[in-house]
Amino acid sequence: MNLGAHSPVFIVLLPLSASLLCLALSRLNKHLGAWVVQLSILGAFASSVASLREVLAEGGKSIHYWMGNWAPPIGIEFAIDPLNTSVLCMITFISLVVSFYSRPFLQNEDWLHYGGYYTLYGLLTVGLCGMTVTGDVFNMYVYLEIMSLSGYGLIALGGKKSMVAAFRYLLVGTIGASLYLIGIGYIYAMTGSLNMADIGQRIQPFVHTPLFAFAVACFLIAFGIKMALFPLHGWQPDSYTFSHPGAAGFISGCMSKVPAYAMLRYFFYVFGVHNSVMEALMNVLGIMGICGILIGSVMALAQYDFRRMLAYSSVAQLGYIAVGMALGNVHGFIGAVLHLINHAFMKCCLFLVVGGITYRYGEVNLYRLGGLNRKMPVSSIAVVLAVLSMVGIPPTCGFFSKWYLMLGAYEGGQNIYIAVLVISSLLNAVYYFRIIEQMFIQREASLPEIHEAETGLGLPVSMLVPIAVTGLAILFLGIYSSTLVTNIINIGLPEVLIK
Amino acid sequence: MTVIDARPFLAIGIAFLAALLVSVSNKYPNIRETWSAIGSVTMFGVIISMVGGVLDGVTYEYTLFQLTDNIGLTMRVDPAGMIFAALASMLWIPINFYSIGYMRNNHEGMQTGYFAAFALCIGATMGIAMASNLLTFFVFYEILTISSYPLVLHERDEEALLASRKYLAYTLVSGQLFLAGTVGVYCIAGTMDFTPGGFLRIDMAPAWVLQLLFVLMIMAGSVKAAVMPLHGWLPAAMVAPTPVSALLHAVAVVKTGAFAVLRVLGFVFGPKLLAELGIADFLAWAAAITILASSFIAIRQDNLKRRLAFSTIGQLSYIVLGGALLTPLAFKGAYLHLVAHAVMKITLFMCAGCIIVRTHLHDISEMDGIGHRMPITMGCFAIASLGIAGTPFIVGFISKWNLAMGAMQAGKPLFVAVWVASAILAMAYLMPVVRMAFFKPEPVKDPRKYGSISYCMLIPICFTAILALILGVDPELFPPDFYKLCEMASAGITAGWGGGWK
Fold first, then answer.
1. What average pLDDT does the segment A124-148 reach?
2. ipTM score for this prediction
3. Which of A406, B188, B257, B440 fits as disulfide partner to B368, beta carbons 3.0 to 4.6 Å?
4. Using the beta-carbon criterion (under 8 Å), do A393 and B138 form an inter-chain contact?
């Protein structure tokens, strides 16, 4: 049997089976379940890389994997192309890195919590990967629910106020999921198919009908809620703030990106952007994006809780992705995809550092971080890199996504977007340099230590390495961004954009 | 002739490597300082090894990696870039030794971070000097902003904090405007490679678009070059230690701004297009007003460093004005003044630093008779002051002569009057310092205490003062043949378009 040919299914299958076994194994030995889950995520990462190589070897044509060899549109298929394999690599990589990071937070828990945490963690990975890899609209709904439910769990594990945050997210998230299901219903009614590629062809006669408009609007709101796009972001700041500090990096990094990817997939690959309904929708999306960028940045400016500030910053950054999509041209698309990947790493890195500070000192007030550069040097350097990237200083990766977005905006004649991007970078600079100032310049704050420094660098090794890795990833993604764009994203461009 | 050669990146790499080595040898000050000394000397060696080729018309080019699909992080050493690169790397050597002396004699803290950021700044400046396209330029422009930020913040007190915020606000805003302009230029022209004489043409876009792009990009350069009314950060940034002021205000940051203006004028838009658009005149007038206004403000400053800061603002606008006149001689004068002002102003700032270390005096009114005990320092100060005022046989004269001739060439003799007035004003704000130092007696009541300084500080001052004299007498005497380079740069820009008379 050729294992390589089955790599797409392993991406989902491995973490799924490991998560289901996790609790039972944890009963035997507290750490066993966690190790198995981590191993499975490593397997998923390897499979993602294998799939990526396979797709690139095929010259970027999408490869279809039929589940149980049932041909679509009857059977479920996984469709992999350069776009989603690169997103998959990102998800599994971050998931892998953060899974090590979580360990020190859990060392005092009993087997049930330890195993339970990793079960949820594994399932979250399954949901995210599944949503990305699937080529079937209903199948995506299933993974969306897996993702959401495990996400609620991980958020609720955060302690004190996290229950309320998780419950709130549950209510809003369920509305989103239901809207998505309604949208599927309409699409199915119109086309009689649930396969994405199939729908893409059959939907064309219907693209001017109100029914189509309604279905697409459902999708916009559904994914808008899940990716916390302004004004549908109400659940997000609380959830990010109070989620389990061990998983916050993963949740904030990937959970909003995958719905954004799904939106990208539907709008550009299935429905196509060149019809009147979609064009109207793109305008709405663009306005949502602009408002998100501006209001998210301003709200971030007003926060003193480090995590909450990052959460609002996410609202703004998701606005960038929305703007990229709304531009509807090649450079805008590239900018959106690039920012999707870049921002996942930046935000993950920042949340990992915040988690580290919480772990050592239990402090989240960003005005009490004075002298941190001495106490946690690696984390401070990682923060500097992430901050520069957020502001968009080359050669960190954040600059390059902004560059493509600006190019797209100029080509599309949408100069307002350029102005918004410039203003937003400056607002980012204001609220992010505040942190740098605090960390490097202010007098040392007297913070009670919760955990002793285990290493000279302030944190346990299993936390330091993830922080360093994501920090370096920001730099590498910047330097290799042209490789990423020319060799991967450009090859997988949707047909509607290639004239 | 273009030669593929990695030496430009080698020079940048040396500076960045020096920064890294400096930061890891935190615990051993002597080793740490050795790294930056070795770095400065080798970097100058690398740069100087390319001068001969550039003078023979060779262009060294190297692409390290692709920034985007068709724009590379590319260095190209043309005469204009060579001027700035040779200047900055040459002046890094004295300022580096001076820094060692200053920081130790003045017992400053955070020396490791200081020297590391210093090396980063110089590396970024090299990148700016030799960048071959707008995006590469922008990359290093932002790196310079970020790496000079900790230098402004060095004192870590309330005043430094405010100054650094102001600095960051000005420079980041200007950077973003530059980026927006770059995007526009790239979309219009489809390229962003610096080309002597500019690559934009009048038929590429409507005139108002070109004018808007011009304003965006020039504003970016003007902030760092402190053209009024965008100069607010510069006097505030004087809270930094004096060697930083010398670096920021003589070599790296402000010169980067002036250099950016010249790049945009000569290599993006080009004199021909600008003459057709007729927009460079506004820049010329802004620069002329800055020259006069800053000189008047400088006269009123009692703090020596602030007085020098306002003098810098005025002198930089010489360069901007030279560029904005768009004639061959004016461009040549602008590039020459880039060199001349750097050599003179670095001397002045280093002298001010010596005064601070020995006597802790900041205000000019207290400096009566200081020259009796510090004859060498104040002697060098006098030479540099005369140079700023444009006295013959000191480097400032050659550049001013060319600038004035350039104004005549453009048929705008009024600007010659501006330069003459400014020279008189420069005399008025710098010469009193010299007069007080030498010709007034020391205060008899509570006599001044003089601390000691090492030769580390004194020798660099003598070096740059002598350099100012040599370049003033025979600018073609030794390897970085600035005069020839400036001539080549200006000839490239204005090839086929001579302005008024030849």
1. 91
2. 0.86
3. B440
4. no
